[in-house]
Amino acid sequence: MVAPPTNTRSSAIARAGTDSESELAARELSVSFEGISALKNVDLAVRRNEILGLIGPNGAGKTTFVNVLTGFQSPNDGGVHLGAQEITHWAPHRIRRAGVARTFQAGRLFKELSVIDNVEASAVCLGLTRRQARAHGMEILTWIGLGDKAHAIAGTLPYTDERRVGIARALTMDPTFVLLDEPAAGMSDLECDHLMETIAQIPERFGAGVLLIEHNMRVVMGICARIHVLDGGQTIAQGTPREVQSNPEVIAAYLGTKRKRKGEVMI
């Protein structure tokens, strides 16, 4: 396991009241913008050591949901819990220090800095010294396949490598939960295969639960044990990939035209 050199994260988790069986849970979350509902009474729980997929058509409320879980958006109703601790109104940096990390669709890298400096900055903000942060960052970058690009300027990277740097930053200090917002966007099939291998290793290697928000159904169906489906800000289905693939509401809302293969509905 890529282990943090200090106990910064473990102390934060202890303060949050979590344990090895904890969940990151949303309970009856509702969000509206100027009277328009983005989320309506959504319940969802991510468990440690699992990969949970969150899917839905554009405008379903997926990113709003992630923003609420990570403190970037306050809900109108409902709450967010990390283990036994309610964290609904915590600031994003406090939630991150408690062990909930995320990526962003836009990457949000410091493009004038090197790749290792980007990862190192995240680790320093979480309490490591520069020396510890650099060693920890190189370990993560090597694991994720970017060790040879550690000293490249982030702004010169291809888009798909930017996504991987975002994941490396999220994994700094071994978070308890990692929320990946469309990490496969713009990737080729081969790049998606490599990404799937990487994400599939996160629960065991880092001891973290993963919430995967993604439009690429091959990625979601290939690595998620459970899938939660939103449409119009509401939950319309949840279950195993097989159950979700054959759900009529999901097919109508998201998966589109049915193509049968061995009795399953495939995108």
Description:
It is built from 10 helices and 12 strands. The chain is about 35% helix and about 25% strand. It is an alpha/beta fold. The protein has a 6-stranded mixed beta sheet, with helices on both faces. Strands 2-1-4-5 form a 4-stranded antiparallel beta sheet, covered by helices on one side. A two-stranded antiparallel ribbon has the order 11-12. The chain is globular and about 50 Å long. α4 (about 115-125) packs across α5, α4 packs parallel to α6 (about 160-170) and α5 (about 130-145) packs across α6. The model is unreliable at about 1-20 and about 255-265 (pLDDT under 50). The longest helix has 18 residues, at about 190-205. It has helices spanning about 10-15, 60-70, 90-95, 115-125, 130-145, 160-170, 190-205, 215-225, 240-245, 250-255, and strands at about 25-35, 35-45, 50-55, 75-80, 85, 100, 175-180, 210-215, 225-230, 235-240, 260, 265.
Summarize the structure.
The protein has 267 residues and is α/β, with parallel strands linked by helices. The chain is 37% helix and 25% strand. The chain has helices spanning 8-16, 62-69, 92-97, 115-125, 130-144, 159-170, 189-206, 217-223, 241-245, 248-255, and strands at 23-33, 36-47, 51-55, 77-82, 85-86, 100-102, 177-181, 209-213, 226-231, 234-239, 259-261, 264-266.
Summary tags:
267 residues, alpha/beta, 6-stranded mixed beta sheet, 4-stranded antiparallel beta sheet, 10 helices, 12 strands, disordered N terminus, disordered C terminus
